[in-house]
C-alpha cells in the first residue's frame, strides 16, 4: 500500500508538470490570451485520458492482488481506482490553470 501511495504521488507530480511545463518562444510571441487557455485545455484533456488509463490499470492490479491475498472487500479496488483518477485529474487541472495564468515560456 505504501508503494502504491508513493507511485500515486510521483504520478501526480508528473501530471502537474505535464500540464504546466513551459512553451517555446515561437508560440509565446504569437499567442493570444485565448491560445494559452486553449493549449491548457488540450494538455488537461490529454492528461485526463491518461488518468483514465492509469486508474484502469490500478483497478485491474488491485483486483487481482486483493483476490490473491484473500481480501473479501470487492469495492476497495474500485475506490482506489477512483482516488487515482481524481488525484491525477486535480493535479493536472491545477497545472493547466497555472500554465494558462502565468504563461511560462523559455
Structural class: mainly alpha
Q: Overall mean pLDDT score?
A: 91
Largest sheet: none
Instruction: Label the overall shape.
Output: elongated
User: Unreliable runs, pLDDT <50, ≥5 residues?
Assistant: none
Instruction: Give the count of helical stretches.
Output: 4
Work out the helicity level: over 70%
Total count of strands: 0
Span between termini: 39 Å
Rg over CA atoms? 17 Å
Oligomeric form: single chain
Element-level helix/strand string: HHHH
**What percent of residues are in strands?**
under 5%
Written overview of the protein:
The chain is mostly helical and 106 residues long. Helix content is 84%, strand content 0%. The protein has four helices and no strands. The protein starts with a helix and ends with a helix. The mean pLDDT is 91.
Amino acid at each position: 500500500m505504501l508503494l502504491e501511495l508513493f507511485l500515486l504521488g510521483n504520478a501526480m507530480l508528473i501530471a502537474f508538470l505535464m500540464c504546466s511545463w513551459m512553451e517555446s518562444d515561437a508560440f509565446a510571441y504569437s499567442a493570444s490570451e485565448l491560445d494559452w487557455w486553449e493549449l491548457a485545455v488540450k494538455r488537461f484533456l490529454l492528461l485526463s485520458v491518461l488518468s483514465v488509463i492509469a486508474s484502469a490499470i490500478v483497478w485491474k492490479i488491485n483486483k487481482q492482488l486483493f483476490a490473491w491475498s484473500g481480501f473479501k472487500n470487492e469495492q476497495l479496488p474500485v475506490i482506489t481506482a477512483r482516488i487515482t483518477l481524481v488525484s491525477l485529474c486535480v493535479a493536472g487541472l491545477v497545472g493547466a490553470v497555472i500554465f494558462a495564468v502565468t504563461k511560462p515560456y523559455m
